Amino acid sequence: MEIWINPACSKCRGALTLLDAEGADYTVRRYLEDVPSPEEIRDVLDRLGLEPWDITRTGEDAAKELGVKEWPRDEAARERWIEALSAHPKLIQRPIITAEDGTAVVGRTEEAVRDALSR
Q1: How much is the pLDDT for 68?
Q2: Distance between CA atoms of residues 21 and 75, nearest Å
Q3: Which of 42, 18, 9, 6 is nearest to 118 (CA)?
Q4: Alpha carbon distance, N-terminus to C-terminus of the chain
Q5: I want to staple 93 with a disulfide (CB 3.0 to 4.6 A). Which of 40, 47, 55, 61 is the partner?
Q6: What is the pLDDT of residue 41?
Q7: Catalytic site includes residue 9
Q8: What is the DSSP string of 30-63?
Q9: What's the pTM value of the predicted model, to 2 decimals?
Q10: Residue numbers of the chain with a pLDDT score lower than 50
């Protein structure tokens, strides 16, 4: 199990606290420092069953500067979104937990973190 975190994020800290309380075996990836490649983002999107716009933090300054709210949300624009997430990792929703069964969840709630633990 791996968890992508930003240490300044309260949701990330809460997820780590819950993982620790449950005795989970996991690896921390500080994705702002260890930036995911476009291929890694494609992989995690497949595992999540989501599209890149589903995990994009559109309220971030970088998102506003790029104008992502105006970008098409279709297959033709998918790579543009993925490249933006890799180039501007602050745009990636957090925390993302990759589960043992090959799936992943966005662990913003206790229920989502527990779901990842149960997989």
Answers
A1: 97
A2: 40
A3: 18
A4: 10
A5: 55
A6: 98
A7: yes
A8: ETTTSPPPHHHHHHHHHHHT--GGGGB-TTSHHH
A9: 0.93
A10: none
pLDDT for 100 = 85
**Catalytic residue of the set 1, 7, 8, 9:** 9
The answer to whether 69 touches 58, Cβ cutoff 8 Å, is yes
Structure token pair of residue 90: 């602050």
Among 102, 51, 97, residue whose Cα is nearest residue 74 = 51
118: amino acid identity, one letter: S
Reported as type and span, the H/E element at residue 64 is: helix 61-66
Name the 3-class secondary structure at 25.
coil
Structure tokens at 2: 């791996």
Q: Residue 2 pairs with which residues in a beta bridge?
A: 27, 98
Alpha-carbon dihedral of residues 10, 12, 15, 21, nearest 10 degrees? -80
Reading the block at residue 51, the tokens are 């599209």
Report the C-alpha gap between 109 and 68 in whole angstroms: 25
